[in-house]
Amino acid sequence: MQWDDSQYAGFSKAKPWLPVNSDYRHKNVNAQSKDKNSLLTFYKSLIWLRKRSNALSIGDLEFIDKEPGEVLIYKRKYGDEEVNVVLNFSKRHQAVNIDKEGKERLLLGTHRNEGEEVSLNKLDIQPYEVLIIGSV
After folding, report:
1. Is the C or the N end of the chain the one with fewer CB within 10 Å?
2. Where is the Maltogenic amylase-like C-terminal domain positioned along the sequence (predicted)?
């Protein structure tokens, strides 16, 4: 684990038997903890959301689009709580229709602001974008 930007990336005071990664000065736990757009911060938010949501943690799983492709869409449902997850694995924009009227709230995403209203029947997904939409 690259902990910080100190010599040997904070892993040890002694010289490790393997060299540290060349990007350790910028990509480390200390730097990512301070960056609200970092991968570490995003994963912490995912864990927080999963702990808070019965739909995400113990809800039923239903794949919306069962065809293999570049976009994965699934729904998690528990009681009245429903969460839709949209993942674009491609380097291209994708048009997505979940076939549900109205707008839902963005719970977490990689390219948009939390709390933003999202229309499920007409989504333009950016390359490599992740959207977690619903109400918790």
Report:
1. N
2. 61-129
